[in-house]
Write a structure and sequence with these properties.
Euk_RPA1_DBD_C, DDIAS, 3 helices, 3-stranded antiparallel beta sheet, globular, alpha+beta, metal-binding
């Protein structure tokens, strides 16, 4: 893997998915496998109770600089200021909303949230660390 790092000024063209948070392992940040009672990390073997799973931001974007298009994913708490809450709190809000609205897909983000994220990011220019 190339260890060269740099900054890229680019504009967001689109948001690539509508799932902005994921259950994350506290040790290695990999996606956890959740069932109704337990979680398991396939990467490092960490396990625990599903109610204790922590969540992390994951925002997949298509961006463009003056010459190229890129697919990037932004992870973690650097997104807290954009969402106004931690990923943990946003996940609670999504779960509460889905429960009240009768949504059966527990990973589904409410349409209003997806629209707000698109409004916040699409067409805006950011500096990305790559």
């Amino acid at each position: 893997m190339n260890s060269v790092r740099g900054l890229l000024a680019a504009s967001v063209i689109s948001v690539q998915n509508s799932c902005f948070v994921y259950p994350a392992c506290q040790k290695c940040f990999s996606r956890l496998i959740l069932d109704s009672r337990r979680f398991n990390c396939l990467k490092c073997g960490c396990t625990g109770e599903a109610k204790d799973a922590s969540y992390r931001y994951r925002l997949s974007l298509k961006i463009a600089d003056t010459n190229d298009l890129f697919d990037i994913t932004v992870f973690g708490s650097c997104l807290d200021p954009f969402f106004g809450v931690t990923a943990e709190n946003l996940q609670r809000c999504i779960q509460d909303f889905n429960q009240l609205s009768g949504e059966t897909n527990t990973d589904a983000s409410p349409g209003a949230l997806v629209q707000a994220v698109e409004t916040c990011f699409i067409g805006k220019r950011f500096i990305f660390g790559v």
